[in-house]
Each structure stands twice: as C-alpha cells, then as structure tokens.
Amino acid sequence: MAQLSSTPLSDALEVTSLGSEGERRVVIVGHKSPDGDCIGSALALRSYLLARGADEVSIMVVGHVPDNLLWLPGAETIHQLTAQSDLEPIRQALGRARLLLLVDFNHLGRIGNPLEGLVAEVIGRPEVRSVMIDHHPEPEMGLVSEMYSDTSACATGYLIAELLGSSAPRELELYGGADMATCLLAATYTDTGLLRHGQITPALFRRIATLMELGARHDEVVLRIFKSDKLSRQRLLGFIIDERTTYDLDLGVAVFALRQEDFDRFGVEPGDTEGLVNVPLDVAGIRAVAFLREQRDPEEPVKVSLRSQGNLPVNEVASKLFGGGGHLNAAGAEYQGSLADALALVWQGLRELVDRYPECEIID
Ligand code: 5GP
Ligand code: MN
Predict the structure, then answer these.
(1) Domain containing residue 336: CATH number
(2) Strand 246-248 versus strand 288-294 pairing type
(3) Residue 14 or 171, more confident
C-alpha cells in the first residue's frame, strides 16, 4: 500500500529553492543500527542531492555502519553516533539544515538516542522541509511535510529508484551517476537477501537493468557485501547451526540465541550478525526463525530478530509481545529483560502464530 505525497519526489528533493547558494543544506537521518538498505539509500540520496546543487549533505545514524558497507561511495562521511559521541557538530549540522530526509524507517522512535530528540526539534521548524521515504507498515502520520511510503516496495532503495526513475524519467540519468546507482543496488540487494525474499517483481528486474545501465557495479556489490564475511563470522555461524539452534520441524520453527560470551569467544560484535537469522529458513519445512542476542546497551539488553516465509506475520509477534515492529516476513524488537524470559516469550509467540496460520501459503 502506498501513501505517496502528491508532490513528485524529485520536487521534494529540489534544493535550489531551499535558499541562496551556501544555504542549501541537507541532513539525512537513518534508523538505529543501520542496515544496507538504510545506508545505501542515504548515500544514494547524498550523491543525487550534491549533483543537484546541494551545498552540504550530512548523514547521521545511531550505531555503527556494518563493515561490509564502508566501501560505498561517501560512507566515510557518515556520522555514526553512540551515547559517548560529541553532539556539537550534529547540533550544528541540524541547525543549518533546510531539508531533512528520514530514510528507511516509519516513526521517530526508530532513530534512537541521542539523536531522536534533536531531530524532533528540527522537524518542528517552519523553514525546514521534512521528507520521509520508507517501506515499513504503518508510518507515523502527520510527522513530515512530504511522505513517500510504499509497503509493497522490497527496499527503500528500490522505492527511491522507482520514484526518481519512473515519474520523471530523466532524473536518474541527469543526476544519478554510477555511484548513486551502485548505492541503490546495494540497498535493494541487502533488503532482499540478494533477490531471495520480499516482493520480487518484473518491475524490480527492469529497474535493476536501468541501474546497471547507469553504471551500477553489480559484481562489486555482490563481492563486497555478500562474499566478504570475516572468517570469525563464518565460524560463529557454524557454532550457531551446530550448538545453538533448536529446530522444531513439527512446528516449522527454529530459534537461536547468543550471549555476550559467545560474541567474545568468536571475536564478533553483536552488530556484525546481519543476515545470520535468515540461515535456518533455508531448511525445508522451517517457516519462522527467531534470533535473540545480548547487546552491550544496558537499556535494551536483548535484541530480537524474526524472519518468516509466506503468510506468517512475524511482525505481530514483534509488536504484540515485544513492542517492536517491522514487515510481515522480517521484524524485530528490543527487550528490557533477561535472555531466558525473551526466549520463553518468543517460543510462546511463534507457537500461537503457527496455530493461527497452519497452512503454508506462498504470497505475492
Ligand atoms: P533486523 O532483524 O534485521 O534487525 O530487523 C528486521 C526488520 O525489523 C527491520 O527492517 C525493521 O523493520 C524491524 N525492526 C528491527 N528492530 C526493530 C525495533 O527495535 N523496533 C521496530 N519497531 N522495528 C524493528
Ligand atoms: Mn529497508
């Protein structure tokens, strides 16, 4: 379902009307613990806006950019914030902004502290045009001046490519070079697990073709994002499969959890586990997977990641039992309790879900 502003995205991103030269300053905000879709989309927009004449484009996120995304053009400019970060440069960049882009998330709570409150202040300023571009269900309404939300898009990066590529056909050609196209491809490939899940449509393949015609570097994206695991991560995966995963083949559910000591033993950071939750879904008969991990953040000690196949809405488990959210087949939450309690809850939630959706249905 799409909730699109009646203004074409290319108009909402028009920078010359923001002020005279020197004043056309933009801030792009992603969600906490950003993934490839968030970072790829933000960097693509940065490259596009600079080509259109923006004087300054700052990207800021709470948490770390995963290592396998740091090669993307412009990634070295991203402000990665932690509780200890010096917020002065962030306050200044936000204070100067005339255009604020919220990318790959649907409500302010997903930004995370310490950035959330600062961004909320900026949205309220009359001279700031605020734009949300996202594909998650139930976006916060009334928040921004221009909303581009489409839950049928497999990735925010794909939504951007469609909005700039089809409504104004020359936009991408004029301002989107090979770097922008590469970032959009990276965004789309990460959120679809290399075109293995999400809504994979003929239009998506057509758009990928046009991105490659613009110079998107498919081979480099695949190699650097999907074939660049550290050996420690592969070893951790072996340990997860061998020793940590409970497979309930009657129920069609697999669950695994990692403690801080597991991360220490394998020399892996909790944030470097992106994608591991998808692995048990490759087992025949497994329809849902939960991955729970201890985080270093004492306020949110447990992170829950959920994935499913077909018609099983794991976002219901994330929202009803953990106060999180997400898509039908990929959802998550943070839990303020022990790992053992979170595990019990997740099993209960997935059992109930499978009871309610006993049939395996592949949905389009
Ligand atoms: P992941 O498991 O990769 O961290 O997250 C998968 C999806 O779940 C994300 O794209 C996002 O939609 C959602 N998600 C993850 N963590 C949270 C959370 O803490 N709160 C909410 N509302 N959604 C989350
Ligand atoms: Mn996304």
Answers:
(1) 3.10.310.30
(2) unpaired
(3) 14
